[in-house]
Amino acid sequence: MELDLIKLIKHHSRTLPSQSLEGSLITAIGDDCAEFSPSADSNLLLTTDTMVEGVHFSLSYYTPFLLGRKLASVNLSDIAAMAGNPRAALLNLEVPPGLSDPSAAFWPPFIRGLVERLAEFGAVLAGGDTVKASNNKLSLTLTVIGEVSKGQAIYRKGARAGDMIYCSGFVGESALGLKILQERHVPLPLPVKRHLIARHLDPTPRLHLGEMLAHCSVTSMIDISDGIATDLAHICKESGVGADILANRLPISRAARSAASALGINAISSCLYGGEDYELLWTVPSSKSADMEKKIAAADGHGPFFIGTIKKGSGVWLKDSQGLHNITFKGYEH
84: domain CATH number? Predict the structure, then answer.
C-alpha cells in the first residue's frame, strides 16, 4: 500500500510545480529528506497541523478535493500570521483500511486539492510519510515550510498598551457554515447557505495581506483559528497585556446575523468563540493606524475592521451595554 500510495502522490504533486522554488528545492519526494535552500536574506518558518476524521472534519460533507484544500489552507494561514511566504510542505497520512488502496477514488482529487492550494501561494508538496491507521479514522498532518525576510516576521508578542486591534474580515461565518452542514434543514436563502458553507469548507489564507502588514508598523499578529476570544488571548498572554473588545465593532456580516437568527445562535458568540475563519488579527500603535488602514484599503479593496484596544493588565474583555465581561480563552478547543 505505502509504495503505491507514495508513487501516486508523487505523480499528482508534480502536475503543478511551483516556479517560485526553482533553485531552492534541490530534491523532494523519493529521498530521505527534502533538501531546501532559502535565500541568504530570509529566515525559515515551520508550521504543522493535524486534521482527524470525526474531530476536525466529516467525509459526509467534505469532498476529497475540498479536504485537500482545507488541509493546505489551515497551515498556510499560520505562515500568513507571521508575514511569511510558504515554500514547501510535507504530508503525513494515517490511512484507514477503507482508503488503503491507492486506486481508491478518494486520493487523486484530495492530492489535487492540496497541491493546487499550495501552488496558488508559491509552495510545493515536497515529501511526507504514510502509515496504517490504528482505528477506522483518517488522520492528515501537513507541515509547511516558509520563509520571511530577516527582521520582518510578526509575532504574537509585541502588543503594547494603547495599540489598536484590527481584524481582516468577517468572523463567525465558518462556525455557522458548519452548523448548517450539521443541521441541513435551515430556513435560509440558498446563496446565504452556500456562502457560509464555503467559508467553512474552503477558507482563504490571507498570505498577501500578512506580507503587506509587515510594512505597516504592526506590533503583533495571529490568525483566527479558534475564535477572537482565544486567539487574542494568545497575543495578550505573550505580550503581557490585556485587551478590550467592543461588541458593537465586531465584524459580523449580514449573512452571519441571518444564519445565527435562523439557528437560534447568538451572532456575537459565534464571532467570538466559533473559530476556523482564518482571518488575521493584529495590533498597531494608534499613531500608525490611519496610515495602515489606507494601505490595506488600497490593496485589499476594503479597510480592516477596528475592534478594540490593548490595555495594561491581562485577559480579553468584551465591552457591551452591560459592562465588561471576561472572555479570555473561551474560544473553540480542538
Answer: 3.30.1330.10
